[in-house]
Automatic annotation (TrEMBL):
This is ABM domain-containing protein. Pfam families: ABM (PF03992). Signal peptide: none annotated. Keywords: Membrane, Transmembrane, Transmembrane helix. It comes from Janibacter alkaliphilus.
Length: 196
């Protein structure tokens, strides 16, 4: 991929936890089905569904997925969706909404969760001192390598120019390549979960 080619947009999954009174279950199913039917008509729609952690639970976990953030925004800003949400007023209450692409944070929960795990809270982020160790493990060798590699090019440059060039190289490298690799490498230590 050339430097001028933008990274391809990644699909976005929206997970919503809604609370529904037991007497409104049938209405809830009809309302959720109507929303899915409308979303299917929008470009980039990849699917939707809902699940309950147990019979009689007030919590309903609803998921929908679009091919890119732009497709998701078109659906979320649409007049159809606004009217559909308004029709659910008094029927459902959204208690948590999450947008997941897998790159919002280096210490995100896994991109995929089993349906039976949806009723459980996601595992907490690692303690900050562990995050600091992981970031240092990626940042130090990157900074050291760039200091040596860019020195012949930036010799005589003002400090601002040297730092600017270093950041322009280091930040994409760290964000998209090296830090995700180091984070996966340390995953058993930081979270107690196996590597993905």
């Amino acid at each position: 991929m050339s430097a001028s080619t933008p990274a391809p947009a990644r699909p976005v999954t929206v997970a919503i936890t809604r609370q529904v009174r037991p007497e409104d279950e049938i209405l809830m199913q009809a309302w959720a089905d109507a929303g899915s039917t409308m979303a299917r008509r929008f470009d980039g729609f990849l699917g939707s569904g809902w699940v309950r952690p147990a019979a009689g639970s007030l919590d309903w976990h609803m998921l929908y997925r679009f091919a890119s953030p732009a497709h998701l925004e078109a659906w979320e800003q649409s007049r159809e969706r606004q009217r559909w949400l308004a029709s659910g007023q008094g029927l459902v209450q959204a208690t948590r909404v999450e947008h997941r692409t897998g790159i919002e944070g280096w210490f995100d929960e896994p991109e995929e969760r089993r349906a039976e795990d949806l009723g459980q809270r996601p595992p907490p982020a690692p303690p900050r001192w562990k995050q600091m160790v992981v970031i240092f493990t990626a940042f130090f060798p990157t900074s050291l390598a760039l200091a040596y590699l860019l020195a012949p090019v930036t010799d005589g440059w003002p400090v601002v120019g040297r730092v600017l060039l270093t950041c322009a190289v280091a930040i994409p490298w760290m964000t998209y390549v090296f830090l995700p690799f180091v984070t996966r490498l340390y995953l058993p230590w930081t979270t107690g979960r196996p590597r993905r």
